Amino acid sequence: MPEVRLEKITKIFDKNIVGLKDFNLQVKDKEFVTILGPSGSGKSTALRIIAGLERQDKGEVFIDGINVSRIPPQERNIAFVFQSYALYPHMNVYENIAVGLRIKGYSQNEIKTRVQEVAELLEISDLLKRKPKTLSGGQRQRVALARAIAKRPKVFLLDEPLSNLDAILRERMRTELKLLFKRISGTVIYVTHDQAEAISLSDKIALIDKGRLRQLGSTDELYYQPKDLFVASFLGTPPINTFEVTIKEGNFVFGPYSFKIPEKYWPKIKNISKLILGIRPEDIKVYLKPEPSSFVCNISTVEKMSGYAILNLNCQNKTLKAVVERDFITSIREENLWIKFNEDKLYLFNRDTQQLL
Amino acid sequence: MPKSFDEQKFGLLLILPSFILLGLVALYPILRNLILSFTENDQFIGIKNFILLFQDERFKSSLFNTLLFCLISVPLQLFLGLVFALILQQRFFTRGFVRTSVFLPWALPTAVMAVAWKWIFNDTYGVFNDILLRLQIIKEPLAWLGKPDLAFFCIILAEVWKCTPFVTVILLAGLQSIPPELYEAISVDGANTLQRFRLITLPLLRPFLLVALVFRTIQALGVFDSIWVLTGGGPGGSTEPISLYVYDTVFRYLKFSYGSTMVIFSFILSLIFVFIFYKFWGDRQIEY
To answer: Are A218 and A271 found together in one domain?
Structure first.
């Protein structure tokens, strides 16, 4: 059962730049796990260490139960799709796919069958004689994927494979990737900085920052039960609104506003007087007229998106983002709006540790 | 499209000065030479000179020497240049220093280095004999520049020492142009060091090898200064290349017409070599 396990991986570059610090990750058989993080977070380093292209300073890598920490990449039986695709420029598409199989010593017939198989799967059969130079970005992407799949590796490692494509193509390839890996049911580790990709593709997301794993879990877990403020702010577009509140006599107080603390949060806020409150833009209800226990805000800007709109609200010098339906903005007549929080969907964070309460 | 036509004319106008200059220093001498080789004292004599050329034993011997010199020294330079380039591409302590010192022979004027080699090969005072004697490889001092075979060895050794750095520079530039991901990709594809070299390095270095090959071949076919200083073509004409014979013919015997004929011949010889290389080399350019 191809399973990938990283145990306490530490990688330091140039003596003091932390690439990874005590990084643990477990990817089960046939699982699609995305390593998500901002740039410079160490996500590509993690992938390259799994591939053996980079050597960790500490810690062990297991693939399929075997400790591969000291095994070179050519013997790890993995496939790696590079951001730049790294197609061999002097070989045609057929050769690009076949060369790995040839190295492994497969028979001419077997190679031919396999190349044709993946070429059909990725719809590149008519490109087999062409050189990479003559292919478009999307076609190169397919060839790179075909090359990976033809090898039937234990694990697929993909390093930001969609980032060099234009927006429309990226979206299409995203759907195709999902279907593709479902069909061949492979174990996939995918690296990206794009949360939309991560959310739509993966079974699980490993969120990483500054070389440390922040949270590993399903998309829903990361979104609805973020461990800390970082995870909560990283996922979601537009990002979660956060602000400091004081607790006074059973009320959350911020600026001139206050509202009663819903009963479900009582046990979490014992002996706490200040905390950070988080509310997702889609959990803010916006009204044209005052409602009971609503707050008044000014509209500072409106960002029209395709199916919805983002309102940037100024509420007593506090900026909040709220998501409303596209139609709603046409009915706005004045500068003032009234908002209410969906009180079931509040996130409470410790002010010092930033952990979820 | 009048505008683009104007642009084209303007473009031609811009490159005209350099074309005129090139015509004066390259095209005119070649044509003048060609005319000279078919005339004697301003009289047209047809291909008489060329017939003489193929009956001339000294010319045949110098042609043979030139080709032999070229066929031994150029492949050696390419091979050693590749080896050095591969070594210098690796990361190691003092790489910068080593890179610089490897290129030193190429930076020296040929005549200067040839004088130095002449002393090194000196039979009585030379360090070469001294080292071989101490290592007990030879029993008594050899007259390196005094015997035909040994002298030929010497001019080739000096040439390889001098010109390998040129090949190294070109191939090192070639190696640096290969994207590192390709090595990573082929590693993941299962290739070991040797397969990486065969599947990535060598094919992607081909255009650079071709450049080095063409340059070195043309220069080797016209070799003059190092041999002039080291052996003067001797002993007994055994190391004399065409260029030295041309020099003698023109400046010592003052046979300008016959000398031009030899020059034209070696010019055509170079062209044939270059043509063959381009024709059979395959990838002249790798497009990423």
So the answer is: no
